[in-house]
Amino acid sequence: MHSNDAQLLVLTALADGEKHGYAINTAIKELTGARLGPGSLYGALARLEARRLIESAAEPAGQKDRQRIVRITAAGREALRAELEQMTHVAQVGLRALRQAPA
Q1: Looking at domain 3-100, which of 3.90.226.10, 1.10.10.10, 3.10.20.310, 3.40.50.150 is its CATH number?
Q2: DSSP strand E in the chain: where?
Q3: What average pLDDT does the chain have?
Q4: What pLDDT score does 63 carry?
Q5: Of the candidates 67, 69, 66, which has an alpha carbon nearest to the alpha carbon of residue 58?
Q6: How many Å apart are CA 8 and CA 6, to the nearest integer?
């Protein structure tokens, strides 16, 4: 899996609400059947945060020792939407070509 794939999976996992790393990886496993390795997951989180596509959520009072919770930003939602629309287009073209090509 490429780092962009990991970033796309993280954004997808965060699209329905904020999560901590373990919950993100659980959502990715439900989606793909596999978890990201720690380097892939936390590398993707760092890159997404650097690009301001995700941000840390406010910690509830007295919860400082808990895992860091992150959420998708408006820019992250737009980036995810654009990427998914592009993927949909590519999938439609590819499937159409497969149906037309001789076996």
Answers
A1: 1.10.10.10
A2: 19-20, 54-56, 69-72
A3: 91
A4: 57
A5: 69
A6: 5
